[in-house]
């Protein structure tokens, strides 16, 4: 870092987050047609390090629209986005998944906190909601709070910010690149943020999406029969999971033995073809509850994690997350919900899962090479049915603070996963209330 940078960063105040992620969607549009169904077609994010004011990394993908796959002439002229770019782009669902993986790899896994910064509330409060409705997916917890830089500019300088260009003009900065190009707009908004931080101001969260707001969105997606349909669908799903779980448990060992036998038979041929071994895939559930306590301490802040006591080897008698093997043809999130129900009787919906980590060290399981997909799970039906079952000898809730200090003996690599989860939870999960609040009628 040069002397000028040293001088600049020495005046900086500590921000609430390690990184500010500047995001600016571009969407399909038509001139003068407010009823035109907008879809996200550009998904850029720039990561600004709040300690150095340097851009450390960025994410940039074009998205293929599905309602109107052909861009209008107006849209192309406004944004500069070409038809061939979106034709080669990802679906929004895939792009959103990649973006979350980027967040995990760049920040969460390294214990770095972040907050999104947008120029207005349209990107995350309007457009993301619309796009999630189109794709029939829930809004992930990462995107439920952000800093509207226009509001913060107005708060700090007591002058209304009409948009990105007015803020650039305030700092006597020229527009770089093309206005309404998502990645160029991100770069220009980043320059505005850099100027504000250089002057010693601290940016604060301005907007949050509540769980009630998300529920209203889901109701719009399903119409007036939402509550009735949801209840019936959930009841049916629980029964199916119970039935499938019992059958799968009986047949699982037999299937695994048959598969292993078939693989050995296929690999042992007269021409001695190379033998291939594939790792088994498992899933684990991390359920957090919030207990009411009088005084929060370093030992206990009221947050606890559900752990089972393993009833079988390996690690018999040790604590572990509820989880198990994913059956052939089964989605990981479905397996996570099923295993949680089978081992603890706790109920969840796959819409209330948040990917936390993928653990794949070949030595993590002494039986065989396993890859585990770990989800944070927000339960939906309380703790009244809590009971150890299947492979679990016991089930209970253990202080997250004590777990992070290593006070308990955990099976497999679950201590490392707890440590990683703790970084995510205290950065995002707690703020977005990705936990179950214990009620008086719950018995634990």
Given the C-alpha coordinates, what overall shape results? globular
Number of strands: 15
User: CA-to-CA gap between the ends?
Assistant: 54 Å
Per DSSP, what share of the residues sits in E-state strands of 2 or more residues?
15-25%
* Largest sheet: number of strands, sense, barrel closure: 8 strands, mixed
Helix content percent band: 25-40%
Mean pLDDT: 86
Helix/strand/pairing class, anyone? alpha+beta
Order of helices and strands: HEEEEHHHEHEHHHEHHEEEEHEEEHHE
The value of Rg in angstroms is 25 Å
Count of separate DSSP helical elements: 13
As residue ranges, the low-confidence spans are: 1-7, 266-273
Structure, described:
This protein is α+β, with helices and mostly antiparallel strands and 444 residues long. It is 38% helix and 19% strand. The chain is built from 13 helices and 15 strands. Strands 8, 9, 10, 11, 12, 13, 14 and 15 form an eight-stranded mixed beta sheet that branches. Strand 9 and strand 10 form a beta hairpin. Helix 10 packs across helix 11 (332-344).
Task: Summarize the helices and strands and which ones pair or pack.
Blueprint: H1 3-10, E1 19-23, E2 26-27, E3 40-49, E4 55-62, H2 73-79, H3 83-87, H4 92-106, E5 114-118, H5 122-135, E6 145-148, H6 149-157, H7 164-170, H8 182-198, E7 207-208, H9 211-222, H10 226-267, E8 280-290, E9 303-310, E10 319-320, E11 323-325, H11 332-344, E12 353-359, E13 370-377, E14 392-399, H12 400-404, H13 414-429, E15 436-437
Helix pairs in contact: 10-11
